[in-house]
Amino acid sequence: MQRISSKVRPNLDQVAKENGFEFHVIDNETYWDESHYYQFTLNQIENDIEDPTAEIHAMAMDCAAEVFKDEQHLQTLGLPFAYWDYVANSFKQKEPFLYGRIDLAYNGTGPAKLYEFNYDTPTSLYEAAYFQWLWLEDAKKSGLLAENTDQYNLIQEKLIERFASINPDKTMYFASTRGHNEDIGTTEYIRDCATQAGLTTQFICLEDIGLDQSDQFIDLDYQQINHIFKLYPWEFMFEEEFASFLPLSNTRWIEPSWKWVLSNKGFLAFLWHKNKGHPNLLETHIEDNSQSQVASGWVRKQFLSREGANITLNAGSGKYLVADGPYAGNKTIRQACHLLPDFDGNFPVIGSWVVGDEAVGIGIREDLTLITQDTSRFVPHCIID
């Protein structure tokens, strides 16, 4: 695994605009960063990332089945009581799911280590699935990379295949919140994949979804919504005014409500206790007080937090970092500290994508600190043997 300097396409802004990548620059700061790329060998991808990703996903699904057998586990994770049956039944009925992202620390040698699951509303999908593939093709055309250069990226292909299999009536709405360009762009990309799969699709802002007299969710034309993809977290959904109607409605959501459990960082503790010592897992415990069984070299995370917010990292040897955020006050876990690799002061985390039950590709986010946040850059990758 190497971090290699690269030339930025002189027409990058135009290419991004033509391909609908309106957030390649965020708040006048570079988000998509092709001034470098990460290079892997095929062995590193297949043996150290792809296979472990598939195994971690399988372990997670097996562990989730045990969590849903005991309501005490749902209470421990903090699921509101009113939604216990709704969420548990979603899993028992095997409501279909689309995708997820597993965040890994990996330096090119040794086992990759699981940081967390992003299994409800994972972001950086368009960048990983489409725009970095476009970068690879352009890099080969320009001579920057050899013609036989590859990339671990079947994400878009598998998304299309998955959509073709999970919706029996072949119609689906796609929703995100109004005014959020990144979320809207990601949602529209996913919608395009569904369209390519042969589905009839329609975008709707979450704020425009209503209820009819029979407590069913409807669009602005008063048409019932039977299947809908939403890029909006379940913990937020359960706090909305319409939340009490979720169990009453016939609407099927992608992602399904059972994904709330896997996206809750408390789940990492259940996964560890079921698979203690697994080479791809970090020791993790739920904190009942300020003390924990992970005595030194630890990271504290809120059960429900996003984009690196509200993380405290104590790596020992004087390394102590705190990331502020809006999620303080939740229950917390303490996870054994395993630092991201350091490439000349740049710290990459690998987002390994799962579609259905398949490991299908990666995207890399890079930061100047050990905590990856919403401002972290996306850097493309390639495979060269």
Quaternary arrangement of the chains shown? Answer: single chain
As a percent range, the share of helical residues equals 25-40%
Low-confidence stretches: none
* Largest β-sheet summary: 5 strands, antiparallel
Number of strands: 21
Distance between the amino and carboxyl termini:
11 Å
Shape type: globular
Structure classification:
alpha+beta
Average residue-wise pLDDT: 94
Widest sheet: strand ordering: 6-5-18-19-20
DSSP summary: helix tally: 10
Strand-residue proportion: 25-35%
Q: What is the gyration radius calculated from CA atoms? A: 21 Å
Give me some keywords for this one.
385 residues; alpha+beta; 5-stranded antiparallel beta sheet; globular
Describe this structure in words.
The chain is an alpha+beta fold. It contains 10 helices and 21 strands. The protein has a 5-stranded antiparallel beta sheet.
Task: Tell me the layout of helices and strands.
Elements: E1 2-5, H1 12-18, E2 25-26, E3 29-30, E4 36-40, H2 42-67, H3 71-77, H4 84-92, E5 99-105, E6 113-118, H5 125-141, H6 155-166, E7 171-176, H7 181-196, E8 200-205, E9 210-211, E10 217-218, E11 227-230, H8 234-237, E12 252-254, H9 259-263, H10 267-274, E13 284-286, E14 298-302, E15 311-316, E16 319-323, E17 332-336, E18 347-355, E19 358-367, E20 377-379, E21 381-383
Parallel strand pairs: 4-21, 7-8, 7-11, 11-12
Antiparallel strand pairs: 1-4, 2-3, 5-6, 5-18, 9-10, 13-17, 14-15, 14-17, 15-16, 18-19, 19-20
Helix pairs in contact: 2-10, 6-7
